Amino acid sequence: MEPDMVVDLIGKAVQKGVQIEGLVADDDTTVMSRVHGICPNIQKMSDKNHIKKNISNSLYNLQKVHKNLSSKVIKYIQKCFNYMISQNQANPDGIEKGLSALSLHPFGNHIECSEVWCHHKRNPTTSKYSSLPYGKPLKGEVLQQDLENTFHKLKKHSSKLANLGSTQANESFNKSVASKAPKSRLFSRSIGYRVAASVAQKNMGESYLIQVNKRLGLSPGTYTRRLAAQKDLAARRKRALAVTSKAKKRRLHLRAKRNQTAASRETREPVNYCPQVALNDNEESLATGVEIPPPITRPAPEPAEFSKENNPFIYFYLESTGLARNSHITQIAAVCGNEKFSQYVMPKVPMTSKAAEVTGIDVINGKMYCHGNKVNAVKLSAAADALLNFFMKFQSKVVLIGHNIKSFDCHLLLNALESCSKTDAFLHCIAGFVDTRLLFKIFNPNLKSFSQKSLFEQFVFSNYNAHDALEDVLALRTLVQTVDIDVASVQFLSASFTFSNALGNYLYCLQIQQNLPSLGHLVDERVITKNMANKIAGSGLNLKFLQLAYSRNPSEGILNLFSEPIVSNRVRVTKSQKVIASLNKYFASNVES
Known about the structure:
The protein has 27 helices and twelve strands. It is α/β, with parallel strands linked by helices.
């Protein structure tokens, strides 16, 4: 607030006989020297929120010198300061002792601590620093000395810190006035009434409207009375709930989540403005314009919706050039009732020796042979069209049933459809998939093996010509029919999944496949584990993006990137301090070298 306005308000209040003992204000203004000119007995009281903000600014200034003074450590010191101030109001001696403890307690020195609030003094062997990295005290004599100097300056103001006020009521009233008289508009005639309405609402609640109507000789209004009572009740209830421990914890949690989201986005976003950034053409300055992609998450399970009456069940099987998920299809087979489909496909990559031995399929001089016999093999696009025509014969969305298809066959199929731009066409004619391997795991989880050949021998008591696509698919249908499993039963719902879910999983695995090679060196150097490398790659990050995050913020760039909140209270990669510290150490050593 401007000094002239404060002096004017206090002067008018004094003329009306109002006794003013104290004035709550921040420490950024010289208004008190002018106020004492008209009312010398008024005492200045500092606003506790501004005091906390000034301490926060001092700590963040120290962060520029001390890299180990991370935001997490600063928040911990802020929390300790806030508790100390709240517990020692009207106790200047307690404030002085608390300020001395603030520079020692985080470093494991509890000489100045009180047993009332310090768990470490009560239980020195079992207590840990739950809010500090790794649960251990801070280290560094220089940092400790700088913190001591910061808090020592406040000791001479201990009396002021022991008698703090709050301007929150003023801010609340300002918000109420702003709702009735926004600053963006000029109200030359009605401004007085609008401010008066805000004052009445602050003092009396929403029921002030009823009193206004009465004074004007108007009916209070049945609906106005009812609405005012409802709003006042809701306001009282909100105030009562706001002071509960549960509400305070939720506010702190939401604030921490907002801060984390903001920090993560700042790390991901490029530098949009910087002096002479357009004139610099070195690699480092050009990297500032690169944006780190937002988080990518593995799709949640999504069971398919279908029924026997409305959706034909088609058993299908694929043969391929190898066991890798990016292998090419060599044979497609499908069966539904008396309808059968079988088509050989000419791959664009060579057959692996193992696949050729197991399936009997081989390509020699551009011609395909199966067990030495030449077969008619077509291009992938033609085979996909033929399979689509087979599905469309049934005039309704089909359900594809296969063995181990969730982790293998669906990836082969989607990889093939993506390569020939047929994905959308198949999306409109497939209701979902059912994986019989998952089906039998639910049906009898105690079986020793869930391979199709083993299940066929155990339940059908027979053998079949495995690794011929058509024979495999016929055997799978016989197996399911022999055991008499109701594929559409709710019991086996988790064995099914939608086409969209299969596509999402395929794209997620493709992301891992693209990003993982760049992280191989980190795994070889034992900076991170292979499992952690998969999580990092799956989230849409590669080595280049990790280096970029570190260069933007060496102390917390990786932390902000990895701990970005996503769905279901999960984070992008991990909150593990061990993993983050290992990566920071690796990038720091590379910068030094």
